[in-house]
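Reagents: none. Just compute today. N-acetyltransferase.
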Amino acid sequence: MTADAVVPADFDPPTHLVTEDFVLEPLGPQHNEADHAAWTSSIDHIRSTTGFVGSSWPPPEGMTLESNLADLVRHAEDFEQRRGFTFTVLDPADGDVIGCVYVYPSKDDAWDVSARSWVRASHAHLDTPLADAVADWLARDWPWARVDRRGR
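Predicted 3D structure written out:
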């Protein structure tokens, strides 16, 4: 691994997870408007989701599309540099953004990485299935033994 990389140099990070209920793909600038619409429509729901309770994100007042784009560019750069992995969660029926998954180095030495996810309030029934599918995926296809699921 490089100094900042969270995966070994010879590891090829998976770029998709497909289930009957959702599809994950790397988050990038192309998702800006749909991502912004997804989380701004669900701020209270996200802030009450395990892993986000007490967090500063999402900001209760929202943010501009331009600020959101800057965040998406940063997440895409982290993915490219292997510093962290953020995935948009898409509805397989229409391709709309319904959530997000973040896998980043843990700040606690007891864990290799921390995984958090959220879904739109309108898709709240997928909150636990998404978190469980991501946990299974990380255990099966990623190189970490110690994944902090943020209490899930």
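Helices lie at 32-40, 43-47, 65-81, 127-141.
Action item: order primers for follow-up constructs.
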